[in-house]
Amino acid sequence: MPLSDVEPRLDSADPAAQFVAYLDYYRAAVVRKLEGMTDAQLRTSLLPSGWTPLEMLTHLVHMERRWFVWGFLGEQVADPWGDNETGEPEGRWHVTDGVGLDALVEALDAGGMRTREIVAHHDLAERGAVGGRFVAGDGTPPTLAWICFHVLQEYARHAGHLDVARELADGATGE
């Protein structure tokens, strides 16, 4: 039984297909949770930790790119920690001035397309490349399967966080 009317109906023995379907599902869930919020609501935190819904979205955009493009493929990417105000792995999330919901949703969708392409063309047992996020001497890079699981749990956890932020902002609840 699906958790919602929009949960993927895919029931496949192909783990790569399941990963892609559920990553798409959670990306869409994040967008649904943000739709209808005013710009002020998107840029205001109602939580003790201080993050805003728009900051969460920029984190998700950068997080997926860090793991699949910079991490797994080993491609150099501009500003891999651009979701953090310090530009480093540790730091408070922030959104660059002038960047709004539409631009971040477009970036989220583009990242999803890139992830689908990566998963379609690589074996889940393949390990991430050395030279991007993973450097020589830091141990064995994770497999694509591990990265898929990690990114999926990030989306699921943060979609739940956005549920709370949305309810606090305007009382809206749901899928």
Automatic annotation (TrEMBL):
<dbReference type="Pfam" id="PF04978">
    <property type="entry name" value="MST"/>
</dbReference>
<dbReference type="InterPro" id="IPR034660">
    <property type="entry name" value="DinB/YfiT-like"/>
</dbReference>
<dbReference type="InterPro" id="IPR007061">
    <property type="entry name" value="MST-like"/>
</dbReference>
<protein>
    <submittedName>
        <fullName>DinB family protein</fullName>
    </submittedName>
</protein>
